[in-house]
């Protein structure tokens, strides 16, 4: 069953998040950026990267829009990781903010075709069960090692696990 049919299972903070996302409700190739960000939050809630069909169903995006957003078709289909990366940078998120979106949303191993992004992701594999503070400490350390610096340590607020 498409994820959008499970509205009763959505976390209580989604409606508030939707309101806060109104400022992002601009058009990118016919897509509502607010809906895409909301989808990123929902990926975190459901604990998996959505399939093309689920992503389209939840964001009210058609498959052609999805293909344009994702770009080149890969052997295994379209990469949802690529969607998140493009959306992240398209909204003006910094490299480290995009990293946090990736990290919190559990991008699968087959999507780790990005360098130096994948180098940091591999370093974070074993810390899923650490506290949020400890994970952020490790993220900050990894970013600094590769020449990036977290602008604010509060960036992870609102991204729930």
Report on this structure.
The protein has helices spanning 14-20, 33-46, 52-59, 63-70, 80-90, 95-104, 117-124, 132-145, and strands at 27-28, 31-32. 50% of the residues lie in helices and 2% in strands. It is globular and about 40 Å long. The longest helix is centred in the N-terminal third of the chain and has 14 residues, at 33-46. The protein starts with 13 loop residues before the first helix and ends in a 16-residue tail after the last helix. The protein has one domain (11-145). The protein has a two-stranded antiparallel sheet. The model is unreliable at 1-34, 72-80, 86-96, 103-128 and 150-161 (pLDDT under 50). By secondary structure, it is an all-alpha fold.
Strand percentage, roughly? under 5%
> Shape from CA axes?
globular
Order of helices and strands: HEEHHHHHHH
Oligomer: single chain
Q: Given the structure, what is the number of helices? A: 8
Average pLDDT taken over every residue:
48
Main β-sheet, in a few words?
2 strands, antiparallel
Structural class: mainly alpha
Low-confidence stretches: 1-34, 72-80, 86-96, 103-128, 150-161
């Amino acid at each position: 069953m498409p994820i959008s049919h499970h509205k009763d299972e959505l976390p209580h903070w989604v409606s508030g998040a939707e309101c806060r996302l109104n400022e992002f409700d601009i058009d990118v190739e016919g897509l509502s950026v607010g809906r895409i960000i909301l989808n990123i939050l929902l990926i975190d809630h459901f604990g998996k990267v959505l399939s093309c069909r689920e992503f389209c169903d939840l964001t009210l995006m058609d498959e052609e829009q999805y293909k344009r957003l994702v770009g080149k078709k890969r052997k295994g289909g379209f990469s949802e990781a690529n969607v998140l990366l493009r959306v992240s940078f398209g909204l003006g998120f910094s490299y480290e903010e995009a990293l946090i979106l990736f990290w919190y949303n559990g991008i699968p191993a087959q999507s780790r075709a990005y360098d130096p992004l994948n180098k940091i992701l591999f370093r974070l594999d074993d810390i899923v069960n650490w506290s949020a503070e400890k994970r952020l400490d490790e993220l900050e350390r990894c970013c600094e090692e590769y020449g990036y610096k977290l602008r604010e340590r509060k960036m992870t607020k609102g991204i729930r696990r």
